């Protein structure tokens, strides 16, 4: 394969169009590319699907030498290398999955200058052998740049923390003058500072794109038989689509995958407790086959480059807004309509608070974990626009999106201030030593044996809530716990206790609004994202193009999306080009792919009756 460096492309736009098949950059891409191509360091925060890879791939083809890309996952680097080779770029990777002779061949190509990009795991990069090779290349002026992908792995507060990333601070010391670009899709202000400090990028130019993913519809539902809710969601909106279902426990992952299979949904399981070969096989199937649903813990996802994941569902509450944003961001990387769906209940919050309280982390760690959980509770409890609330967390202003559940079907609310004060008073008057059931009995004036034994029929709160149904009281107590006004003492049989947050409400200085469950009557169903994607597309041609792509991918032993994204096939089906020249104008088709697949695509179109 001839390296692109031999072609001496004249500009970023030339590379973008002729190699990758796009006629224009998006958002901050061009500014990043020009800055890094000119030798500048950069810290790039760009949402998943925003085109981060092009920010270093294009400069790699413009600068002399080989670009070294640090990537944390084997699957990610393999897929990216496959995609680059399909586009005619001389790319390779070095990781533990290779046989010794394969690694030697790649190292020879690197030393001989036959590679434009080399993907390498951080632990491999930092070996004495690799550093010695890079030393020789640096002396010869043949390292184009260093790209540090998934840079949030350097943050010790994230669940993707990789200790090897901390050692990447050696790069500017050892290879001065070589531009470095660190990229991530998930980093709040504190994490950005941590990345810059730990990677020696304090003076690097920062490019912070919008966190908004307008093609993703956010939907959150109250748990009420969540498995059946999930099944209805998939069947109604995403039949035959690829998706990810996140669960908190390994057991739940396996049970959910098995249950979906029984319901006729093609599903796989993935968690860290599975044998490595099974995990790898399942991940490979998910990446290479169309229409599979992966049930997984958060062990699955980082570096998943599959662009046509049409939905991400959560059957349990994530641990933070950052985690939720990162996980849901795996949907719709191709820019086509997709959904982020979650079933949650107040018990999820109680469980996570208990996990934080019982963890062995420091008090500072627990404080941060609680703050992040509280921020997530604010998102799921909001009665306003989900997207606006989500963007605000990352310091970005947004308008009502018109494409989340709250915008499309505004929820009913109840001013529960008076009832909430009665509930808190009920907990206080009964001594903060009982669970919700007993306090509700007191509030409703129920003369149970327990009420009589403790003489709680004589307290001032006895019967003051008789006009409120027991079910409503239980919902209110769950929300008081969820929002932190009540705490659960697990060591005292789940007794409820007041927190400092309850004081303003008890003093009449705050209000309490309760989100009500939707009415049972059938509301107007949201239009499924699948309908939006296929609107106006000739289905027979689109399906035939997908079938051709699948067969071609099997022949070449690469994931289907490496050949073409769904978005490209959709555009082909809409445009129905009648010649190679017309096909060349379709977004996503570069020179190499036009030469390799143009004739076959035109033949598929010609078969249309």
TrEMBL record:
- Organism equals Aromatoleum petrolei
Q: Could you tell me the EC number(s) of this protein?
A: 5.6.2.4
Q: Where is the Helicase C-terminal domain?
A: 226-377
Kindly list the GO molecular function terms attached to this UniProt entry.
Answer: DNA helicase activity; hydrolase activity
Coiled-coil intervals, chain numbering: none
Q: Per its Swiss-Prot or TrEMBL entry, what cofactor is needed?
A: Mg(2+); Zn(2+)
Q: Where is the HRDC domain?
A: 535-609
* Protein name listed in UniProt: DNA helicase RecQ
Q: What class of enzyme is it?
A: isomerase
